[in-house]
Amino acid sequence: MQISPWDKRNARDRERLLKRDAVLQVAVRSFNEKGFNATSLDDVAESLNVTKPTLYRYFSSKDEILFECVRLGLEGLQNAAASVERRGGDGMERLKALIRDYAMLMTQDFGMCITRTSDHELSPESRMKFRSMKREVDATIREVIEDGIRDGSIAAGDVRMMAFTVTGALNWIARWYEPGRELSPEQIAERCLATLVGGLAPRSGAEG
Amino acid sequence: MQISPWDKRNARDRERLLKRDAVLQVAVRSFNEKGFNATSLDDVAESLNVTKPTLYRYFSSKDEILFECVRLGLEGLQNAAASVERRGGDGMERLKALIRDYAMLMTQDFGMCITRTSDHELSPESRMKFRSMKREVDATIREVIEDGIRDGSIAAGDVRMMAFTVTGALNWIARWYEPGRELSPEQIAERCLATLVGGLAPRSGAEG
User: Fold this and answer.
1) Contact status, residue B127 vs residue B185, Cβ threshold 8 Å
2) Could you give the CA distance from residue A57 to residue A15 in angstroms, rounded to a whole number?
3) pTM of this prediction?
4) Which of A28, A44, A180, B117 could be bridged to A69 by S-S, CB 3.0 to 4.6 A?
5) Does residue B122 belong to the interface with chain A, where contact is any CB pair within 8 Å?
6) Total structural domains in chain B?
7) Which residues does chain A have within 8 Å of residue B158's beta carbon, measured at their own beta carbons?
8) Are residues A188 and B120, on separate chains, in Cβ contact within 8 Å?
9) How far is B189 from chain A (nearest CA, A)?
10) Is residue A104 a part of any domain in this protein?
11) Is residue A71 part of a domain?
């Protein structure tokens, strides 16, 4: 069978991407468990049965690997925000969908890395990109809350503080969640959503 | 005037404590702004017009200074928890008092340091002490929520997840708050409390 050189090239690209992903998967777990500073690229390489110079074929530095992990996490949040923008329904329905997706992402490696990484662990350039991606997600959350207040599905209040309260509760999942030892990501998302939407004060019978 | 040697000793002790406090005040701001790793004790000493060896009269290491900052923050939370335990009122009244105090502490230097410090920046020994202090505060929050569910002032739900949702929203204040540029700590506490207690869903007119 004749193999086209283009196919060959695609296969090489695919393999390169697979290897690059494997580096990120191992690195993000170490960042989340041990922190950026205590993560050694020698250990990451050893886990993958390669040497450190091999990693440098895919990334120029540990900083770049960290940023790529955080970027992938933020990409997840951006996708959740974008799908909510396309979605129909009132403000509350859209906010609930976004809270669910956000909570689930916080139980996954790259999402967790967003919260567990301190601002000052990123290089100044990465920090700027990080903040601008984060601002987009935050803006969507505020817009959806504003829509909900306007259509009456969300209680009136200080939109910025409401958004901070929601994202704080959600981001914090990434600090306490331990895979396997906990409720499932779906259960965590539903229960966190219940408290945020219903509030701590009991509701009258009529409201259910 | 005759000065008693005991007074002299007290004066020396007081001065020592004042100087020790000054080191912590300068260090905690640097930890919060630049992070533990980027904080240099030479810079801390320079801000205080002394040299680094002078700092070692008060602390044995940068690790010890960080732990002392975090410990002071946690002491604030523990005091808030203890005062809520002595306090009368139903579960919701006591939880509200605790949320207010907790939110205010998150806008202050040492409280902020609790959230901004990653677990893995503390030495293993400090981390154990930190976690045990934190567990005490978390236990009080859960107890107050349980009391409130029992006396009907707080909505029924998964107590542990409710506590995580509350502390997540509160801890996050320490990540976004910038002194001077924001609402006052009192305003932040009240608005965060309003969202947590009332919930995002509107309440029927009868409930106000």
Assistant:
1) no
2) 13
3) 0.92
4) A28
5) no
6) 1
7) 191, 194
8) no
9) 10
10) yes
11) yes
Chain A contact present for B183, CB below 8 A: yes
Contact with chain B for residue A41, Cβ under 8 A: no
Integer angstrom CA distances of residue B200 from A107, A112, A166, B192, B193: 23, 25, 9, 11, 12
- Using CA atoms, how far residue B82 sits from B85, B111, B144, B186, in Å, is 5, 16, 11, 21
B136 inside 8 A of chain A by CB:
no
Closest CA to B189 of B103, B80, B102: B103
A106 and A115 Cβ atoms separated by less than 8 Å = yes
Asked if residue B102 belongs to a domain, the reply is yes
Which DSSP category does A180 fall into?
T
In a domain, A207, yes or no: no
User: Residue range A62-67: average pLDDT?
Assistant: 95
| pLDDT band at A112; cut points 50, 70, 90 | very high
How many Cβ atoms from other residues are within 10 Å of residue B135's Cβ? Answer: 10
Q: What is the pLDDT of residue B13?
A: 86
Could you report the predicted ipTM of this complex, rounded to two decimals? 0.90
Mutate to test the interface with A, among B165, B181, B203 (most CBs of A within 10 A): B165
Print the domain residue range for A190: 5-199
The CATH number linked to B101 is: 1.10.357.10
C-alpha B39/C-alpha A118 separation (Å) is: 14
